[in-house]
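Fig. S4 source data, part A: sequence.
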Amino acid sequence: MPFRIERDPLGEKAVPDAAYYGIQTARALENFPISGLRAPADLVTATIQVKKCAAGANLALGRLQADVGAAIIAAADEILAGGLRDQFVVDVYQAGAGTSHNMNANEVLANRAGERLGGERGTYTRVHPNDHVNMGQSTNDVYPTATRLALLATTAALAAAARALADALDTKADAFSHVLKVGRTHLQDAVPMTLGQELGGYAACVRRGADDVDQAATQLLELNLGATAVGTGLNAGDDFTQLAVSALARETGLAVVPAANRFRVTQSMGDVLAVSGAMRRLAVEVGKVASDLRLLAMGPRAGIAEVRLPAVQPGSSIMPGKVNPSVPEMVNQVCFQVMGCDGTIAAAADAGQLELNVMMPVIAWNALHASSILTQALRVFRARTVEGLDADADRCRELLDRSTAVATALSPYLGYATTAEIAKTAVATNRSIRDLVLERGLMPADRLDLVLSPEAMTEPGVPGDRR
């Protein structure tokens, strides 16, 4: 492979001739051969959007020569259209603050912009990574700004996927509103309810999780671009900040604004932590739905089997005909991973020191990874499980009729102690609650039927109360 020689303050280094990145990226490749993971596509996009809008601001302020600024913007547009994506090669686990990621972007843009102006890669005589592409910026404002923009783009899709799942659950709740079943608490029989009520509760939980994600994401709209190294705005200025952030609002379609306090946004990753916490909450809500559907589908002959999940693949390599709840199992695993990402983000956010949190690369990767996998899991869960969910109404009623939970409706009439004794006897003798009450002459048959109506027990109030 042919190489070119580039120079930086530490000396010389060979860089592949074909590479659009430069010497600082080459050093990062040597220093951080850690995971093989690269910057998420959304983070690359957001970083290039920052560079494009910064170049536009510097052009408007007369700080960049017209041809240089135009070449940087044109190179950025090439990348935003999908070009040169293979040139973003720095490992996720890199030096603090994301300096290597920032310089990777600076070098790719400088080399491509210089090439457009007739220069050769690696010379930087026409367009320099630091002097021109990074003008008015620091890694310490570029990286958090790019992280926020990338998360804003992905969390919008996440919230939409969650609401679509909630809608699908609501649709099934309506379809199964007539299916009576026994409710369960502590994994024991409780009082009657409908399958529709159960699914409607799931829908509301998921929708509330989506609302949390949306609300937390509004904190990301404050950008510290122009804060430069520590928040003072050295070498940038309020005019640069206003122009660059306004350009980003147009470029992204997001209602981003300059940070009310640049020092806060430079020092703290708390806003990203809040979004991560909201994603964790959504993962917990969705994970419970997946677990509950696995329980309710347990069987089909030796379990609860109140619902039937769509069969998406054979469930066993040894047991013919076995079908597993494969998609809910996947959803559970994704939800666990999201919780793990949140734990990493919390630890890294806590590690901020003085004017900067240098743990931003691991925070950004985990937040974007969590958002991406949870979004996809919700889409698959909706399409390949919830929309095909079916109910076994006969099985639901069979288990309800076998349960002693209906005895709860007798408490307002017979008292807790008498009702408990009847329920205990019913279990011990395998007789019905109704037969035992009639045998003891505790209530007339017509009144008892009103009180023990499972339908009445699914509504607020005292069953059989003539008032």
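Fig. S4 source data, part B ends here. The radius of gyration is 30 Å.
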